[in-house]
Design a protein that fits this description.
ABC_transp_perm/SBD, MetI-like fold, membrane, three-stranded antiparallel β-sheet, transmembrane helix, MetI-like_sf, MetI-like
């Protein structure tokens, strides 16, 4: 019997071995700022739990290494990820001295490497299964539900990041709301402006190059520089236009962040609208003209429905981009998860940085999965049903 190895599984198994055997699993720190002592899996957990975790990780690595069915790989990855999540919470309780409110336990490099390795295994298994869009969204809901259940159970309460959250729980959700509003609001404004502008650029060739080149130029401006450029004009508007300051327009704060994100969002929306409309088959337009459709009817019932998957791809790019860029808004008082990131950097408290970074990454990942599913669902809809 010939043993067949999985090429990606070789990389995953190497990462798992490296993370489990050679890298620390958790770090015990005297307080939230100073460097701590790195602990391996066997040192960070009770003997039975550490040994059990190593055995489970070994079995999951074998499942990645060999050419098993995608379902087996998915189950192995899920079990490994769940075990890691429970183990890091248990490590916090095991390592923290009794009655010590200053000591902090944080995941170390080994934990993050193992998390990445088995998340990669899960993603690869899902890709090989080729599930329909609704099932991918269901996987996302189940994963989010599992993470939420662990959070609500209190098993992570001893971790440093959760202690940072406990001290800022009243502020955290307010900043989360600002982050989401910045990302979604700027996206909505960009779609509202970008779709008509993209249609106009498609219809008027003389306009296309100038608009796209201008939007390309905006994309080349670094985000910090663009925020700075907007401070002057918006401060002038707030000082000279009656009522502008009362509705929130000022040199710093959420408004310049919103405007900057809106400007960054325009290029993907406009360019994908142009590309999507240009890709509509000529035969479809000729058939629409043949049955007497007006230009407006052709646009709404033929061209735009056929171009919609490409347009949605642009919207997906914008949303994921904006979720990340909204973090920078904290530098000019725009709020969002960036508040915790930059506070943590200023205080040399990396767990506070993670309090802002982890939800940002989770939001971007969830947005990408959901919009990918919407794009694929739309692509599978028959043309006739789309324009009905």
């Amino acid at each position: 019997m010939t043993i067949r190895f999985d090429k990606l599984g070789l990389i995953i198994a190497f990462l798992a071995a490296y993370g489990a055997a050679w890298m620390p699993f958790a770090v015990l720190k005297p307080n939230r700022i100073v460097q701590g002592q790195a602990r391996s899996i066997l040192d960070a957990l009770p003997a039975w739990a550490g040994s059990g975790l190593l055995v489970l990780l070994l079995l999951a690595a074998v499942a990645a290494l060999l050419r098993f069915s995608p379902w087996i790989k998915l189950v192995a990855a899920t079990a490994a990820l769940l075990a890691l999540a429970l183990a890091i919470g248990a490590a916090a309780g095991f390592l923290t001295p009794a009655g010590n409110t200053y000591a902090r336990v944080a995941p170390a490099a080994g934990f993050w490497i193992l998390l990445f390795a088995f998340a990669l295994l899960a993603a690869d298994a899902v890709t090989r299964l080729g599930p329909p869009p609704w099932l991918r969204v269901l996987f996302l809901i189940l994963a989010s539900g599992g993470a939420g259940a662990i959070l609500m159970s209190g098993s992570w309460d001893g971790l440093s990041i959760m202690k940072e959250y406990a001290g800022r729980s009243d502020v955290f959700w307010g900043e989360a709301g600002k982050h989401v509003m910045l990302a979604l609001g700027s996206l909505f404004a960009a779609v509202l402006v970008g779709l008509p502008l993209g249609i106009l650029c498609h219809r008027v060739d003389a306009l296309r190059a100038g608009v796209l080149n201008t939007l390309n130029l905006i994309q080349t401006i670094p985000s910090i520089a663009l925020f700075g450029i907007l401070i002057g004009p918006l401060a002038w508007i707030a000082a000279t236009v009656p009522g502008a300051a009362e509705i929130g327009i000022r040199g710093i704060g959420a408004v310049p962040a919103f405007v900057a994100l809106f400007l960054y969002s325009l290029l993907p929306v406009v360019a994908n609208t142009v590309v999507g409309l240009a890709g509509v088959p000529r035969e479809a337009n000729d058939a629409a003209r043949g049955i007497g459709m007006t230009d407006r009817q052709r646009l709404l019932k033929v061209e735009f429905p056929l171009a919609l998957p490409v347009v949605l791809t642009g919207i997906r790019i914008v949303l994921v981009q904006n979720i990340g860029l909204a973090t920078i808004a904290a530098l000019i008082g725009g709020g969002g998860f960036g508040v915790f990131v930059f506070q943590g950097i200023g205080q040399t408290a990396m767990d506070l940085v993670l309090l802002g970074a982890v939800p940002t990454v989770a939001l971007a990942f969830a947005a990408a999965v959901i919009l990918d599913a919407l794009i694929e669902m739309n692509s599978r809809i028959p043309n006739g049903a789309r324009s009905a």
